[in-house]
Amino acid sequence: MYYFIKGKLAYKGENYVVVDAAGVGYMIYTSLSGIERSGQVGSDITMYTYLNVREDAMELYGFVTPEEKSMFLRLISVSGVGPKAALAVLSVASPARIASAIITDDEKLLTRAAGVGPKAARRIILELKDKLDTAELGIDNGEMVPEETAVMNDSRAEAMSALVVLGYSASDAKNVLMKLDEKLTTEELIKKALAALM
Prior knowledge:
The chain is α+β, with helices and mostly antiparallel strands. The protein is built from ten helices and five strands, in the order βββαββααααααααα.
């Protein structure tokens, strides 16, 4: 219903912010990184939002970047993972690092999130990796990522998959990654590539 809400940051709570948009104060639940990166109270802010409707409540969840919102939506698509668990995952790592963890079967990173045990972490990896292997990796739109990554080392290939998960085209991701030092770790490659792509 709401794609984003833009206004003044009126208040920062423990797990939410309040945005004053045209005189209406929106209480928006967000990750720890979202609270840290939301700026000072009184500053302008844009939160990319998701409205969660339950029988007994309507809750707004918000993110400082579209990438964070995109990863949140992927996480809550996993059976048994609700908005609070998804926020907990986003509180322990960036969207790029989470994507990398899913691709590399890194359960330990996911279980660092409050309320996410080994079973939930395995479910996240299993269900999202399946999506990454099809439409999420560009296979449905003709950008055959497995062929693209065949000429890359493991770190670059993993980084490229993570970038495609975050919405970048396979060709753009490959062009940037091939200019970076192949000795960098997957996480370093993702971080540098994101900086260049933004």
